[in-house]
Structure formats: structure tokens, C-alpha cells
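Q: What structure does this chain adopt?
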Amino acid sequence: MDPNDRLLLKRNLELAEENNKMLKSMRNSQRINTIMRVFYWIFIIGFGIWSLQMVQPYLKTLTDTYGAISNLSGSGSSSGSSNSLIDLLKKYGGGK
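A:
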């Protein structure tokens, strides 16, 4: 083997080792990125579920109030409506 071929083989080996280091670094970066993306989506979904749990009592009160008001508007007699409205206000702390 002549010295020129030996020099080319040595240079080829150096390039292969450098490429191997870069590929390992890229693979590690990709793994970290994947793990961070999983944690990101777990956080987003968890925060959504948690916030829904925190808002749920207020939404239930709101829907109950809406249902009671729609029942009041659906009733025909005005005297029954005023009593029901007073009862509704007492129930939710608006009346004394």
C-alpha cells in the first residue's frame, strides 16, 4: 500500500469518526426533544382537565340558574312567576 492510499484511509477514518459523533449527538437531541414533547402534552392535557374540574361547580350553578330562569319564563301565570323568582333569588343569595 503506498503512502498516498494510507493517507486517504486515515482521512476517511477521521471523517467517519466525526460523522459518528455528530450522529450520536443528533440522536440524543432527538430523544430529549421527544421526551420534552411528551411532557409538554401531558402538561397541556393535565392543565385542561384540572381547569375544567375547577370551573365545573361554577358551570353547574350557571346551568342550574339558566334552567330555573327558562322554567320561569315558560310558566304562564305572572303571580307564580314572581314567587318562583323570589325563591330563586333567595336560593342564590340575591334576596333577603
